[in-house]
Amino acid sequence: MKTKFDQIVKLKKLDVEKIERELLKQNQKIEKANQELTQFKIEFSKFEYPKTGNFALITQFKTMQTAFLREIKQKEEELVFLENQKILLQGQLKDKQLEYEKIKYLQGEEIKKMVKKLKKEEAKNIDEIALMLFKRGEK
Prior knowledge:
By secondary structure, the chain is mainly alpha-helical. The protein is built from two helices and no strands.
């Protein structure tokens, strides 16, 4: 049965599906950032402080160590940002799902009304047919 809510239900469902896809992409970005962060930490843990060498070598080591720490910090900040984006998407998804469920409920109520009206009309028609048959049977 067609109702006035059919198109709205379809659009709300598309909205929900769109945000679900965005949430999946966000989870993939988070996973990738976690892997990169883990890789940076592994690389950083492999650094060994030079036991021998001149001052330039020690300075070079400190510069590389500082650069790696900066990269790790940047990845951690990126991860926090991505997690915050995920939380926002989850909130949007919840809102869109609620809107979809409301419209779907209204559509269901509209269908119930239509079915009730059809049953009432059908009962009325059956009564009319029964009355006509009864009158025909009396003649």
